Amino acid sequence: MGTPDFAVLSLRALVEEGYNVVGVITQPDRPTGRKRVLTPTPVKAEAERHGIPVLQPERMRRPEAVQALRELQPDLIVTAAYGQILSKAVLDIPQHGCINIHASLLPKYRGGAPIHYAVMNGDAVTGVTIMYMAEGMDTGDMISKVEVPIADSDTTGTLFESLAAEGAALLKRTLPDLLAGRIEPQPQNDAEAVYSPTIKREDERIDWSLPAVRIRNLVRALHPRPGAYTWWNGDVLKIWGCQLDGKAVHAQAASPSGAAPGTVLRSSETGIEVQTGQGTLWITELQPSGKKTMDAATFLRGSHISAGTVLGETPAAVGRSRE
Predict the structure, then answer these.
(1) Considering Cα of 6, then 7, then 11, then 13, what sign does the dihedral take?
(2) Is residue 166 over pLDDT 80?
(3) Predicted confidence (pLDDT) per residue in 291-301, tens digit
(4) How far apart are alpha carbons 201 and 58 in whole angstroms?
């Protein structure tokens, strides 16, 4: 059971290791792109390449979906970023249980956005946990783990790829011992649980009063989607790349330049320097509303954003200032 690219490598690993994959369950095809073309999930596309039957129930909890799964008579269910919570009726079907490949070191970052939060919080390390599934949100007993370092240059996109590969490799190493009964699962300590809820629109907006380090981590965490944004000239301005000023990490004063957070201090072909609540941030890659992503030099050739401009003002605030 899986849906996005993260799960593809795990499915491929099962096939390469010679396991008899009797079926794949994934989310229904969804319309994508500007033309809203109905598109299969990456896992469905991979399953079809191997001739594996695919089921795409809208809700896995529905009796007809559970029955269709029961008819496949699986000995083990492997899930990876499937996108639906499984009912007890599903969990009870396979004799070896249901296991999940989760992109964090549980019990840290239970929930649907573990990679985003690891980057957003500036963690130095994350990893993958394979666990037995339970009725709660990522609460089952842990079977195996692998740690993965987070580089300063990592984004959610690059880390997503690393964790997908590490998860597939861990699955290969884990399954023989699991199926032979040679693993003693470890319960999670609920007192240490940290949750990573789905990213909401309000989480994507840059708060310039925060330290530059935290803003840069937010930009990294929301790359390649949905993207961190601010307001400029009454429109959304997405920030895709930025760098810390040399003094940003150690700056103690709230606003050493005397400028309010969000104020543009200077701009050049190498970037746009913006005051934050602690230190300054250089914007190097951005995307104005309705346009493609571009570097700072390209942006500045077509747009005027001078020192003293304040980013983050909402359209209503911009309207009042113009009046």
Answers:
(1) positive
(2) yes
(3) 999 999 999 99
(4) 25
CB 133, CB 97: distance < 8 Å:
yes
Q: At which of 168, 192, 216 does a domain end?
A: 192
Q: How confident is the model at residue 261 (pLDDT cuts 50, 70, 90)?
A: very high
Whether 52 and 98 map to the same domain: the answer is yes
Query: Domain span at residue 142?
Result: 5-192
Strand partners, 77: 98
Residue 56 CA to its chain's centroid (Å):
23
Q: Is 226 annotated as a binding residue?
A: no
Count of domains for the chain:
2
Q: Give the Cα separation of 267 and 255 in Å (integer).
A: 18
| Bond prior to 40 in cis (omega within 30° of 0) | no
Is 106 known as a binding-site position? yes
* pLDDT tens for each residue of 190-226: 999 999 999 999 999 999 999 999 999 999 999 999 9
Q: Has 104 been labeled as part of a binding site?
A: yes
Q: Are 222 and 254 in contact (CB under 8 A)?
A: no
Write down the pTM of the prediction. 0.92
Average pLDDT for 50-57: 98
The verdict on whether residue 107 carries a ligand-binding annotation is yes
Q: Is pLDDT at 72 greater than 90 in this prediction?
A: yes
CA 130 vs CA 55, 140, 172, 260: distances in Å:
23, 10, 11, 46
The pair of three-digit structure tokens given for residue 195, joined into one six-digit string: 């949750």
> 60 and 36, same structural domain?
yes
Q: Which domain CATH number covers 233? A: 3.10.25.10
Q: Same domain for 146 and 272?
A: no
- The token pair at 122 is 């500036």
